[in-house]
């Protein structure tokens, strides 16, 4: 039969047609396998090609696949039957496959909306309610972003004008791709400092000394440096790093690994950002003092920088110092006022903008550069630079640092975004945020920008001034654009110490995190240790290595907490079915003869020894040692019996001749001495191991008859744990202690079955839904055992008489339940040699 390509269902583009002829054979084989499993007697389907393609069917309004409407031939009828059978057995998958592979306008829009969140929120934008608030918020945020862009460029060690680019370009792409409505995208001091450390390590001042000259610079503080070449190289390094960070973030987003930020716990982030704030403070301190130092990088770099700053403290520029201190003081005071009276002040006072304008005017009017040799911004490029490709050859030198920068930048943005998303009742997509920031950094990296994330202070300004959506962000970008195009020339007299002071003033929030340590210590000492360790490591080793060290230390604490979890014996709260730790609650009572052990961790190869140790501490003895001691005692008893120094009662109890031991029942019919010389065969002896023994062997007492493992906190067992638990069960069974399991997870039984855990000794009836169920079962078993008629008890004797022992009928009270009403005698034939 001739195959013809059929069109897609009505309303679907013909460009998406799919030829299923190559897949028909595989489909028939799959349906045959499914039919064989469900209907073993079903005959195989014909293995010829279907007359109609899988796309040749209509869909009813309910979405069910229907065969061709007019099957006129045998082949068509067979085809329709096959489709019906496939639809029945495979849940309609065969019929839904063509539609799934076809394109539609609705599906295309849904895919585009998931990639471009702006298509989701912009059509629902409330112009009358939100536009004015977004404009006010955007203007306020834009002014702050302009000043912070200039200031944070100092952390990256690039000309300050490039900070304006970094405050502008990332917003353009995030406006279309981002899912947070409130964060302000742009430079952040921690990330900027991490970028700056890479820039300084790859382009130090020593690489740009003017050849053949040991002369000092214009201010007499250092050698001559080709600043133009140095700045150009540093800008190239920063933009290349930004491009690489963007690539990594896009890859992370596509691979859906936004969960990686979960490994950055709050204590770790707190310690890291506090250390970063200290690093930022030191890097800006030398600018406030206008002290020239080497650019140290790596381990102990901050210590070396501080030492050199204090060594050259005598060269401090007084004009820069005064301007910096005044800026820090005024900014911190006004920020405190904004925080305390934020409910009364409709718009926070933009103190950074006010201080910058005043400082620029004073510097220009007093000509501080010429009169006092103050360090000023000097030139700020007007307009935009043409896009430049990244230096791909540098990727290998910065790939390690780019990983940490990509993760930290993403973690900061997402954590801030989640705070405001929770506050305003909407959700952000972590993986989409990875893609949004990645594309933003790739795009901005082509325009000589450095890595962007979000700044806490800018975001707070945007939210507090009434920002509702990303429209506020795009308006703030417009304010930065005005500064780039028209205001750059006006800011050239501004002192760098003022910008550095603005950076320091914005570090207050991060420094205040130090006061979290006492609270963490009271709540959780391990979290406090993570905070302190990460902070100290980041200060000493540098931010990149410090972050890695803190992450490894945090993971180590998790491993240690799992390897050495809490455990303890549990008891019952009288009158309830609740069980709590005996050591932590006063009125908890342990069931008589029962020990309950709860191990609060998954059980695997690393902590199985801890389980065994906690088990010994809970029950008070070592099952293996008890068993070995009992074997040793039995061997001695057997030797004494052979020598005639001990005799066995008719109940199988061993006693010394002529001596009444309190722990043993005397023999009513002592044996003749002649019979003691008869060779005997050793058989099992019944001994009360908790009584005094007639041999000098110290056998530990076993005060329990049952052991319950509470597995309520055990989420998984590895193969080592399974084998070890089997061994534990056998060890306790040998000393007549029954082992039970309670409160296990739903998947535990199937996991144990796969591990061949169960056999004749280890059975499924050892497992109970709750601890109380296990305790009730044990009590019922003990009551049944106590009510048994003595003649039905197990008797194991060492006997040397050829005559059977007869037991007379025992009387029982009428009010007791007889196990067997009419039992008169029982003959027990003993093995005799």
Automatic annotation (TrEMBL):
PANTHER family named in the record: SULFATE TRANSPORTER
Annotated organism of origin: Apteryx owenii
Transmembrane is among the record's keywords: yes
Location in or out of the cell: Membrane
Pfam families documented for this protein: STAS (PF01740), Sulfate_transp (PF00916)
InterPro entries assigned: S04_transporter_CS, SLC26A/SulP_dom, SLC26A/SulP_fam, STAS_dom, STAS_dom_sf
Membrane-crossing segments per the record: 131-154, 160-177, 236-261, 309-333, 345-366, 391-413, 434-456, 471-491, 530-560
GO molecular function: secondary active sulfate transmembrane transporter activity
Keyword Transmembrane: yes
Keywords of the record: Membrane, Transmembrane, Transmembrane helix
Signal peptide (from-to): none
Membrane topology: Multi-pass membrane protein
Protein name: Solute carrier family 26 member 4
All residue ranges annotated as the STAS domain in the record: 584-778
GO cellular component: membrane
């Amino acid at each position: 039969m001739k195959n013809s390509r059929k069109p897609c269902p009505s309303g679907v583009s013909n460009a998406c047609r799919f030829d299923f002829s190559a897949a028909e054979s595989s489909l028939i084989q799959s349906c045959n396998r499914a039919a064989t499993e469900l209907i073993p007697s079903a005959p195989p389907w014909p293995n010829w090609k279907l007359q109609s393609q899988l796309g040749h069917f209509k869909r009813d309004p309910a979405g069910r696949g229907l065969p061709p409407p007019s099957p006129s031939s045998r082949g068509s009828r067979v085809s329709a039957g096959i489709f019906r059978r496939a639809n029945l057995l495979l849940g309609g998958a065969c019929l839904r496959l063509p539609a799934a592979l076809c394109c539609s306008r609705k599906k295309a829009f849904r895919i585009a909306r998931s990639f471009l969140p702006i298509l989701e929120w912009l059509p629902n934008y409330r112009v009358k309610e939100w536009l004015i608030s977004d404009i006010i918020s955007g203007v306020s945020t834009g002014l702050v972003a302009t000043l912070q862009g200039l200031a944070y460029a100092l952390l990256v060690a690039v000309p300050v004008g490039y900070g304006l680019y970094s405050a502008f370009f990332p917003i353009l792409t995030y406006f279309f791709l981002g899912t947070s409505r409130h964060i302000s995208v742009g430079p952040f001091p921690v990330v900027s400092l991490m970028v700056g450390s890479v820039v300084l390590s790859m382009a130090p001042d020593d690489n740009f000394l003017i050849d053949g000259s040991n002369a000092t610079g214009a201010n007499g503080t250092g050698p001559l440096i080709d600043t133009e070449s140095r700045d150009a190289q540093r800008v190239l390094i920063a933009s290349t790093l930004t491009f690489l960070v963007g690539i990594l973030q896009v890859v992370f987003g596509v691979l859906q690994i936004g969960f990686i930020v979960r490994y950055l716990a709050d204590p770790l982030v707190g310690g890291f950002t506090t250390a970063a704030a200290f690093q930022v403070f030191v890097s800006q301190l030398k600018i406030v003092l206008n002290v020239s130092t080497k650019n140290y990088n790596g381990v102990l770099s901050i210590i070396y920088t501080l030492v050199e700053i204090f060594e050259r403290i005598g060269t401090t520029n007084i004009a820069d110092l005064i301007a910096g201190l005044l800026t820090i003081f005024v900014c911190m005071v006004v920020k405190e006022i904004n925080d305390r009276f934020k409910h009364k002040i409709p718009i926070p006072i933009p103190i950074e903008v006010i201080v910058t304008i005043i400082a620029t005017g004073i510097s220009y009017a007093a000509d501080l550069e010429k009169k006092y040799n103050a360090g000023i911004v000097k030139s700020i490029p007007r307009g935009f630079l043409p896009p430049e490709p990244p230096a791909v050859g540098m990727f290998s030198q910065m790939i390690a640092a780019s990983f940490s920068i990509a993760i930290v930048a993403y973690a900061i943005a997402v954590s801030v975004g989640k705070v405001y998303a929770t506050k305003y009742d909407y959700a952000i997509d972590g993986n989409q945020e990875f893609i949004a920031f990645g594309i933003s950094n790739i795009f901005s990296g082509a325009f000589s920008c450095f890595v962007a994330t979000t700044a806490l202070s800018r975001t707070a300004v945007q939210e507090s001034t009434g920002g509702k959506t990303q429209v506020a962000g795009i308006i703030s970008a417009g304010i930065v654009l005005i500064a780039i195009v028209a205001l750059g020339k006006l800011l050239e007299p501004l002192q760098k110490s003022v910008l550095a002071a603005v950076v320091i003033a914005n570090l207050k929030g991060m420094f205040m995190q130090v006061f979290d340590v006492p609270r963490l210590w009271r709540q959780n000492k391990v979290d406090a240790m993570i905070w302190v360790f990460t902070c100290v490591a980041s200060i000493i080793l540098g931010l990149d290595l410090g972050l890695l060290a803190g992450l490894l230390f945090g993971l180590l604490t998790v491993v240690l907490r799992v390897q050495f979890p809490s455990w303890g014996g549990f008891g019952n709260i009288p009158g309830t079915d609740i069980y709590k730790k005996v050591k932590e609650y006063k009125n908890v009572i342990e069931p008589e003869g029962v020990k309950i052990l709860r191990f609060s961790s998954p059980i695997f190869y690393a902590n199985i020894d801890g389980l065994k140790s906690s088990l010994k501490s809970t029950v008070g003895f070592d099952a293996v040692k008890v068993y070995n001691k009992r074997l040793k005692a039995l061997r001695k008893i057997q030797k004494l019996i052979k020598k005639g120094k001990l005799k066995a009662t008719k109940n199988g109890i061993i006693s010394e001749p002529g001596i009444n031991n309190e722990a043993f029942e005397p023999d009513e019919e002592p044996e003749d001495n002649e019979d003691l010389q008869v060779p005997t065969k050793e058989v099992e002896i019944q001994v009360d191991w908790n009584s005094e023994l007639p041999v000098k062997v110290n056998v530990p007492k076993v005060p329990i008859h049952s052991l319950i493992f509470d597995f309520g906190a055990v989420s998984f067992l590895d193969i080592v744990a399974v084998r070890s638990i089997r061994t534990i069960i056998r060890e306790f069974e040998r000393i007549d202690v029954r082992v039970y399991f309670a409160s296990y997870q739903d998947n535990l039984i199937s996991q144990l079955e796969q591990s061949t855990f169960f056999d004749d000794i280890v059975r499924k009836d050892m497992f109970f839904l709750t601890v109380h169920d296990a305790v009730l079962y044990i009590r019922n078993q003990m009551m049944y055992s106590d009510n048994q008629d003595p003649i039905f008890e197990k008797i194991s004797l060492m006997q040397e008489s050829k005559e059977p022992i007869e037991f007379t009928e025992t009387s029982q009270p009428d009010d007791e339940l007889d196990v067997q009403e009419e039992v008169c005698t029982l003959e027990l034939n003993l093995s005799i040699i």
